[in-house]
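Budget justification, computational time. The allocation requested in the original proposal was used primarily to generate structure tokens for proteins on the priority list. As evidence of use, we reproduce two of the resulting records. The first is shown immediately below.
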Amino acid sequence: MFKSYEMELAGRKLVIETGKLAGLANGSVLVKYGDTVVLVNVTAAKEPKEGIDFFPLSVDFEEKLYSVGKIPGGFSKREGKPSDKAILTSRAIDRPLRPLFPKDFRNEVTVVATVMSVEMDNSPEVAAMIGASAALSISDIPFYGPTAAVNVGLVNGEIVINPTEAQREVSDLKLTVAGTKEKIAMIEAGANEVPDDKMLEAIKVAHNEIKNICDFITKIKDEIGKPKFEYKSFEVDHDLYEDILEKFKDETKEKVQEVDKTVRDANVAVLTEEIENYVSEKYGEEYLEENKSMLADIIYKLQKVCVREMIFNEHKRVDGRKLDEIRPLSCEVGLLPRVHGSGLFTRGQTQVLSIATLGMVSEEQILDGIDEEESKRYMHQYNFPSYSVGETRPSRGPGRREVGHGALAEKAILPVIPSKEEFPYAIRVVSEVLSSNGSTSQASICGSTLALMDAGVPIKRPVAGISTGLVTNPDNEDDYVMLVDIQGLEDFFGDMDFKVGGTEKGITAIQVDIKVDGLSYKIIEEAFERTRKARKYILDEIMLKQIEKPREEISKYAPKIVNTIIKTEKIKDVIGPGGKMINKIIEETGVKVDIEEDGQVFIYSSDGEAAKKALKMIENIAKDIEVGQIYDAKIERIVTFGAFASLPGGKEGLIHISKISKERVNKVEDVLNLGDEVKVKVLEIDNQGRINLTMKIDESKEEKETVVEE
């Protein structure tokens, strides 16, 4: 049965419709936010997926280019692999939903958000996040929601919910917050050095709006929601777990306490073998074989209990650090001789090498998506090879995690990148994870800052990143222990990975992943304070002691830039018919040239003299031909009454036979030949634009004239 529900969100109409489309899905809603329309469908497998020890949730945010009136490029003329923006949105939808499914649920669940129409003032990402929650809530799939989400901007110091396209262009904050009615479930942000207190205020304002949306979805669920289906529980055998816990708890605590990840993994492997032998002897080999998957869950649960109890009750970390202690840090710059800039950042056993490359502005990345961003000049990419965790696995290109971590580092550093006018380069940074034991995304922020400074990029301020973790008491949200600089095991068994990048002035990026049902304001505020202090320490005591400021000059292997501005109406003259003029300049000088629509010209060359020569040639072409000016010209045609000579800018002028020499000339060919290069002075430009030239330049005045060489 068709149903339509409506509420106001940030002064605009939000409509959720169901019962008309996609009737075979477990849950389906059509979300309309202004003229933005997103169809969200959720489905679940009837039986659990065998052989896995996790909840198999997949989320796809499908950008359809018809939603913005575009035809896809390429030969097939259809949408291909998802854009980075679509991948990041899929992750943003996933993160607040995942903790709200039953812990013992193993049926595969798929969420598909199809973007069907886009009005730039109304975010399809927000519509999809709300729609996913609504579709799951009204479906028969076990789900403890609802959740909701909004975007937040900061325009002229004022917090704005779901900013319009015009507001986003001038906003100092691009924040997405998701949560339940009670708590914050997900934070994703890019910011222009926003202070901690302002960021917390923005999150609180967002949560107030989220509460209203959750009430709206709950109302829909109460009216039309289906009863949740029963499922096969994958909860571990309680008696077996208690048996193993009693016998192996002390040994587990001992074996996980190790600074070196490799040694700790070896210890756990030995422990696993001991537990399997114990189960085999007590319950039989056949029982062991039938329940190996459950036993793996029990060993995981055993480690988790031991690590959490040590942290929560004893304030003791597996590597012996204090709760607020950062692992040993070091950094280097200039490791690779031929690249434009490089920076190595090491935190404990996590190590990231970042490499910066400078290129022409025209080499910026072209984006083919549904939003208003068509290109980006600063590109950050993150690679996570299998050797970084000591595993053997062939490389298959970046996955969703790599795209997400690269985007986080890009957000963190983008606010300090100089403008194109200040530094007219496209900039690419690649972070290679060499060794991983937690917080590689934050190490990539630090390493990339070092690489940019080593490359001579005049960043406004250095940026550092750090993460905090959390172990909570499930019975009391105010009873928790917070950890600074979490390693892999603490992320794995903890409740939160709260990543913050920023400068000494403020926050530039946030990404929060949580495994519990949400965070209180108190936890968020404390996380901001802890990360601020840690960032300051990393910047002042580690990074800036290695390189205090960006290098004065860029690498000798990077292209040097000379730039100028010409009149827009002169662009066609500089390019010439079929690119004739610009190609001639490139061939003669060996430079590369970018010409922008607004008349900005960028000349790139490793040879400074060649760049200057090209600049002079372009400026000559772009200058208006003026009476009285002297130019270098080339004889192109000879006629009985004179010669036609080419001038800068593709213009042509006539040198009458009487103006060739002070001496009498009987025949033009006696003095001039095709291709001769001569100096000429402009005598006249008539009403029809015809140019009359003379080679009879008064020697006494020549030095006073402005000479323009081609």
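The second record produced under the same allocation is shown here.
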Amino acid sequence: MRYDISVIDKRIDGMRIRIKQFIIILLLALICSVTFYVIQLFYTSSINNRSSLIYEQSLVASINQYEYLPSLIAEDDVLRQVIIDPNTNYLNASEKLKFIAKRSGAEVVYLMDKSGTVKATSNHDEISGGFLYHNYSFRPYFNRALAENSRQFYYAKGATTGIPGFFISSPILHNNQTIGVAVVKLNLSHWEEKWANSAENIAVADENGIVILSSIEPWRYRSIGDPTKTTLDKINLQQQFIGSEHTNLYSKSVNFSFSQNNHKTFWLVDKKLYLVSSLNVSETGWNLYYLVNHSSIVNDALIIFIVISILLFLAQLNINNKKHIAESKNKNRILQEKRQEELQTMMDNIHIGVILFSKSGELISTNEYAKHLLCIDNNANPKSNTLHINQLIDITDPDFDSILLQDIASPAYHETTTNTPKPIPVMFAISKVNTLEKQVYLMTIVNISRRKMAENQLIEINSELENIIENRTKELQSTQKKLNQKNKAIALGNMAATIVHELSQPLTAMKSSIAAIDAKMKNSDWNGANESASRLAPLNEKMHNVIKLLKFFSYQDNEAHINIDLIETINRTLDTFKDVFKEKGISLTINNDYSNILISANPLKIDLILSNIIQNAIDVLEKTKNPLLTITTSCSKGSVLLSIEDNAGGIDNSVKEKMFNPYFTTKKVGKGLGLGLAITYEIVQEYGGSIEVENITKETQTGNKDEQRGAQFTISLPLVDNKESTHSHNIATPL
């Protein structure tokens, strides 16, 4: 196989350009997505800071509403009496503490003496006695309150209950001496429940960096960073988190500094990367951390990358498409100009006058022979002089208009004379020519002076001869003339009728396909144009085969029958009518349960059978509302049954009796000569089959039977015998 090197080079260059465009598009999309990522990072960080502040203020507000309570308890004389006098019964003080705890919402309220022993508590009535007489001198909130003589905050697991809580303590004074400590224990679990329900990632760490509150349960009691041995010993000594391990919350921490005052911190927690914002919780020494999953930011940036890439690809495709259309138009224009030049060269070299003119009759161009015949000045410009065709030949406007209105697919010749100083008899024909820009007309004109002279001479000779033998041959000439005319009419009629009938169907299909292509060209809509154009070649082949078949139709069919697939033949025939169905709005329904059905026949004759019946159905469906054509195939007892039905109202009984007779037709003059069904009948009989027609009526959803009345043609043809078939093991293969 030989390849054109220049074509390969062009394809390589085109591929390189497309690769460069692809890389540029990806780079632009990457730049946009990275920019969006940075903006989203700053925006998310700003939102995180505001959210952290909201959670911090909410937590501080919750703590502050209990901040006064220990000091208030420490000032109560009744409660202090339990500490002052060891012999005082604890019950009254404990009941009062129980009342205070219930009204304030605190979990437990209790009093400790200077040794750290609980002397009265709100949970004294529990089975285990609650905190009563337990010693918590090891707790920092007790030691610091005594040592610093001030209010203290502390978070730990309960040494007795194991329930974590937040402790607020205040010293109890008597005569300016510290005699004990009042403690309020708060349960902050409801905050963790709220945080968990909000689906946000929040963690609060105490002054030792241990997570004490979190919206995610597995994070609790883990450390922010690696705790020192001193810190761990301190926690164990205070029994702050009994039975808990303090592993590092994050496996890696990364800090980015975009500017001097702008820092971003990332934590890798449980194999997930988070953007972290931190805030100090006032008066407690705690830190609140607000974490956002980094993947959500990356996913948004990835979506932006994909969307921008798609938009840029579409924009590039649109630009390439417009460029391709412009190049195609320019190529077509150059091709058209080249064709016009070639046509003009050909026109100038033939000895027949050729004239191009517009629909209004204005002259466009002529060849040299026409200029000489019509005495047109070679130096004159027809476009500037706007010559009209009736200025060149003797033809009036009404006659000219009537000629243009005629069907000039097969142009007829007309005779007239030129409008030259010495008139010349001429014969002309007009054909319609479709160009890319407009519709023009082509006139061929021939000088018939010699023929006219010979005709005149012949007329004179005939006149003399007729005068001599007029009396003796008058009757013979009359009889012979009538006989010849009749024979010619019969022969011409039979041949013309057959050709017209058998070629009209493919010509109609070609006309529909050409019209569809022309419409797509005018609208610059190429969708489906190749499909319409591809049907022209098979139609041309069909016309050639029809002419060949008609030439030998009167003789015995000596062509060997071959095994053909009836389903494939039906589909091929229907394909030639596709544009006609679309133009006339006919709905097509095909009922077939077989992939192939083999019969022995001439494929062209089977196509003639189908085309004749389908064309008749199309003709009767023209005035039918919601026209429908249904084709059904089935196999039974060695034969295939092909049914073609319409909903055009059925056929009269008087017509059914004669419809297979030659030259019988119900169509208007010029629409048909009654040969189609006669030919169809002969072909079916030749192949040992049968054809029947009947009226059918189907009920619709409305129950109106008349709405679905129509005609049904049923054709029976023998299937290929298994013993004779060498191409397939199955005569009819189900789908």
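A brief technical remark on that second record: The first strand starts at residue 108 and ends at 113.
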